[in-house]
Amino acid sequence: MILYGSVHESEGGRRVASESMAHKVERQLRGDILTLALPPGARISEQEIGERYGSSRQPGREALIALAKSRLVEILPQRGAVVAKISVAKLMQAAFIRETIETAVVRTACNAFHFHARTRLADCLKEQERAAGTGDRAEFRRYDDLFHKTLAEGAGLPMAWSVVGDLKAHIDRACCLSLHAPDTLAKLIAEHQAIVAAIDTRDPAAATAAMTTHLSELLHDLPRLEAQHPDLFE
User: What is the CATH number of domain 88-232?
Assistant: First the structure.
């Protein structure tokens, strides 16, 4: 959240512009970390961030501080920063909290679900099928997030997705690795379809089971990912 000071207009104008750029750089840097464009262990400096995202050093410094708080980067005194390795411990905790929240969401959705959200879910599934067909994993992940966000909104629990969104950083990088396994995209789409079917039939037990199965896929795949990419994990 940006807080505006009570300084005079010209200074305030520059301050607002600086904070806006810092937020933009943080978002772009976070995106590159979560998609592994900047892999765990990569060194990054304020100067390199400025060159990469077209900013001065100050927005880069603010972005690094913010991402250090999220444990996505580690700031090294006098040496810049390094992208943090994937923490299995943090991932497991985040996955536990996410499952607790999202199974509650689908149970609630079985009691009442907004029809506009149901239409958006169908659109998400179509777009995921299209992305899977073209092998566009970035687009697939975008609609995966939108699917889960729409579930929460349709159930009248939009804050649930906000909480999950804050946790997902510890999950997303491993998820990005897992999407390259054969048939993974088709399997995830089928799991989404099972969740929607359970909501359509107002079966909370089936919805809970379908969501649990869906969110457990990454955890089952984690040993393989660690073995294949030992340099990316703590």
Answer: 1.20.120.530
